[in-house]
Amino acid sequence: MKNICIIKTGSTFKTMQADLNDFEDWITDKLSTARSRVFTVHVEVGEELPDLSLCDGVIVTGSHSMVTDEEQWSKKTASWLADTVDRQIPLLAICYGHQLLAKAMGGVSGYHNDGMEIGTVEIQTTPHAHEDALFRDFPESFMGHTIHSQTVMTLPEGAVRLAFNGHDSNHAFRIGERAWGVQFHPEFDEVIMNAYIEEVAQEKSWSRERITALQKETRKTAEATALLKRFEALICE
């Protein structure tokens, strides 16, 4: 039996939690592993990072924090992620986790020059994806849910770029043999994506026309969602 550790780097909006739960729930719901074998460590609120000997695989969540804020919990997590890569423990880092992994391994993460990417968007795979253990069965183009203002601006030395689109040149990468970062959200579904659009629209006072246009583009993201089970299968190999 394998143990999967979810490193929780933040929480969704409180208004969403009441009906939709939170990041770690969305991830766990899409795995086949028994819930008793999945444990969550909420590093943003000060919970201690686990001994890596307890982790057969690691998934890092997104966050409403920014990597460039250099918060103490985030810097500690970055060092822990570098150790995870060194030990070749399977690692999947999502959104904030993706940016933090890149930074931990010597890359550069920061605010995107073109601002926020939000909604269900088309993403392309690179030729390297066809030889990658996690992405090799992906089509040349797939849909993914996104919500981010920061991005991986420069990949770490030796990282392999796996996916991109017109907004973000580094939507997915691999560092080493068993660590991946993805900017898109494989744990989201259409309900969660639409709820995020509503929340962000309220914060930014977007027009109803803009909200409707974004939500009309929301759709299922079968390939992106399947990534979590693909990663789970790699842990069990």
Order of helices and strands: EHHEEHEHEEEEEEEHHH
Strand order of the largest sheet: 2-1-3-4-11-10-9-6-7
Mean pLDDT: 97
How many structural domains can be distinguished in the coordinates? 1
Which stretches are low in confidence, meaning pLDDT under 50 for 5 or more residues running?
none
Radius of gyration: 17 Å
CATH evolutionary superfamily: Class I glutamine amidotransferase (GATase) domain
Tell the overall outline: globular
Give the structural class: alpha/beta
Biggest beta-sheet profile = 9 strands, mixed
The total beta strand count reads 11
Counting DSSP H or I runs of 4 or more residues, the number of helices is 7
Our estimate of the beta-strand percent is 15-25%
The third-level CATH topology is Rossmann fold
What is the distance, rounded to the nearest whole angstrom, between the alpha carbons of the first and last residues?
11 Å
Portion of residues in helices? 25-40%
CATH architecture designation: 3-Layer(aba) Sandwich
Highest CATH level, the class: Alpha Beta
Report what the structure shows.
The structure is a single chain. The longest helix is centred in the middle third of the chain and has 15 residues, at 72-86. With 237 residues, the protein is of the alpha/beta class. The chain is 32% helix and 24% strand. It has one domain (4-189, 222-236): Rossmann fold (3-Layer(aba) Sandwich).
